[in-house]
């Protein structure tokens, strides 16, 4: 809020490259842990602020699509990493990945700060130049500029009129978006997607009898990319809620199916029917389940959870709210990935995925009951009454 979105992205880019270079030169587990910690902090800053930046520069008609574009490019990066990982060792791969933040730094040199951020810091002339650059040299920005100016001043007055920080933190303008976004982040992290990412190859080794598990991981990443592209085309036409509900239903079915197959493999591995069957004859079942889950996750909850962080929070709370939601998301991700192997040891791979299927059902209920539709709506500085109208009990 003090220095702007673009400035923080510039400040984080090159140190992130250094973190990857240090990882490549690591010669102990302790050093890898230290570089991972630094890199994790930096990538969290970059991903969070990138979403806020996209939300603030986009018009409502394309805001969802632009948010999906960032997810699509993220999936392209993951696909490249998986593909290169089949041929490079981890040190060589770290050197390759270290080039990405350099490209980010160079790209940021050619784009402006967001108009909303500049207005909030009293830089009105720079805000006008930024908005003109974003909308095009021939666009008439006077109406949009006046609306942003008026509503930011109103937000400042509202914020200054609150007595004490506790009342600010308990304001409905902050608490309602925090509850909604943190709820979505919980379900995003605890439905198994990150377990697939971190443990894809070991899990595929347990369920694939003949298929190359590395090939399965690459195929999963490729499907995730295609699903992200489909989400980008649908999100501003169909809306957020329908995609979230479709995502919840498909994830539940796919996770239950994968868990059931893992149970079948665990119970009947030594049965006559399975041992006499052709090796790899059933490999298509877990692969279909994984690909279905990947499509559902990338179509709905993955891009939309991040998008709503930028859409639901009013400008004066956007940095605080985004930080809270993103921090909670990474906390859930840490707990999920850290405990997944232990839970699997206690209840088996099938039990783990049946648990994720149950959480996906709860996710669907949460979406139906609590998440508002934001398709085509202006963000707070364009429509300050919108956040006040958010209702937990829809």
From TrEMBL:
<keyword id="KW-0813">Transport</keyword>
<keyword id="KW-0812">Transmembrane</keyword>
<dbReference type="GO" id="GO:0005886">
    <property type="term" value="C:plasma membrane"/>
</dbReference>
<dbReference type="InterPro" id="IPR050549">
    <property type="entry name" value="MFS_Trehalose_Transporter"/>
</dbReference>
<feature type="transmembrane region" description="Helical">
    <location>
        <begin position="242"/>
        <end position="264"/>
    </location>
</feature>
<feature type="transmembrane region" description="Helical">
    <location>
        <begin position="213"/>
        <end position="235"/>
    </location>
</feature>
<keyword id="KW-1133">Transmembrane helix</keyword>
<dbReference type="Pfam" id="PF00083">
    <property type="entry name" value="Sugar_tr"/>
</dbReference>
<keyword id="KW-0472">Membrane</keyword>
<feature type="domain" description="Major facilitator superfamily (MFS) profile">
    <location>
        <begin position="1"/>
        <end position="375"/>
    </location>
</feature>
<feature type="transmembrane region" description="Helical">
    <location>
        <begin position="66"/>
        <end position="87"/>
    </location>
</feature>
<dbReference type="GO" id="GO:0022857">
    <property type="term" value="F:transmembrane transporter activity"/>
</dbReference>
<feature type="transmembrane region" description="Helical">
    <location>
        <begin position="284"/>
        <end position="309"/>
    </location>
</feature>
<dbReference type="InterPro" id="IPR020846">
    <property type="entry name" value="MFS_dom"/>
</dbReference>
<feature type="signal peptide">
    <location>
        <begin position="1"/>
        <end position="19"/>
    </location>
</feature>
<feature type="transmembrane region" description="Helical">
    <location>
        <begin position="347"/>
        <end position="371"/>
    </location>
</feature>
<dbReference type="InterPro" id="IPR005828">
    <property type="entry name" value="MFS_sugar_transport-like"/>
</dbReference>
<keyword id="KW-0732">Signal</keyword>
<keyword id="KW-0762">Sugar transport</keyword>
<protein>
    <submittedName>
        <fullName>Facilitated trehalose transporter Tret1</fullName>
    </submittedName>
</protein>
<feature type="transmembrane region" description="Helical">
    <location>
        <begin position="93"/>
        <end position="111"/>
    </location>
</feature>
<feature type="transmembrane region" description="Helical">
    <location>
        <begin position="34"/>
        <end position="54"/>
    </location>
</feature>
<keyword id="KW-1003">Cell membrane</keyword>
<dbReference type="InterPro" id="IPR036259">
    <property type="entry name" value="MFS_trans_sf"/>
</dbReference>
């Amino acid at each position: 809020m003090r220095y702007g979105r673009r400035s923080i992205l510039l400040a984080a880019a090159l140190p992130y490259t250094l973190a990857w270079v240090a990882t490549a030169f690591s010669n102990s587990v302790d050093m890898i842990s230290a570089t991972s910690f630094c890199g994790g902090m930096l990538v969290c800053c970059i991903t969070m602020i990138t979403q806020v930046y996209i939300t603030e520069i986009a018009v409502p008609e394309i805001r969802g699509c632009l948010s999906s574009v960032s997810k699509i490019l993220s999936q392209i990066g993951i696909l490249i990493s998986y593909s290169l990982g089949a041929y490079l060792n981890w040190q060589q791969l770290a050197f390759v990945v270290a080039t990405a933040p350099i490209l980010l730094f160079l790209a940021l040199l050619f784009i402006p700060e967001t108009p909303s951020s500049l207005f909030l810091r009293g830089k009105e002339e720079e805000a006008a130049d930024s908005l003109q650059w974003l909308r095009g040299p021939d666009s008439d920005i006077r109406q949009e500029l006046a609306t942003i100016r008026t509503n930011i001043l109103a937000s400042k007055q509202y914020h200054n009129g609150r007595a004490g920080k506790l009342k600010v933190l308990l304001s409905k303008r902050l608490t309602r978006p925090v509850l909604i976004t943190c709820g979505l982040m919980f379900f995003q992290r605890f439905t198994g997607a990150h377990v697939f990412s971190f443990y894809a190859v070991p899990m595929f080794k347990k369920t694939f009898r003949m298929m190359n598990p590395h090939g399965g991981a690459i195929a999963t990443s490729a499907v995730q990319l295609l699903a992200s592209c489909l989400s980008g085309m649908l999100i501003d036409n169909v809306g957020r809620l329908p995609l979230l509900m479709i995502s919840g239903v498909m994830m539940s079915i796919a996770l239950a199916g994968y868990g059931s197959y893992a149970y079948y493999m665990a119970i009947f591995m030594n049965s006559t029917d399975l041992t006499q069957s052709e090796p790899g004859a059933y490999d298509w079942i877990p692969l279909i389940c994984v690909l279905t889950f990947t499509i559902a996750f990338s179509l709905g909850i993955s891009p939309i959870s991040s998008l709503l962080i930028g859409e639901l929070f009013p400008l004066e709370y956007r940095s605080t709210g985004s930080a809270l939601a993103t921090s909670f998301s990474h906390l859930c991700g840490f707990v999920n990935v850290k405990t997944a192997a232990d839970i699997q040891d206690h209840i088996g791979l099938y039990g783990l995925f049946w648990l994720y299927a149950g959480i996906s059902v709860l996710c669907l209920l949460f979406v139906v009951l609590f998440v508002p539709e934001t398709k085509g709506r202006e963000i707070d500085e364009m429509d300050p009454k919108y956040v006040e109208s958010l209702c937990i009990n829809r």
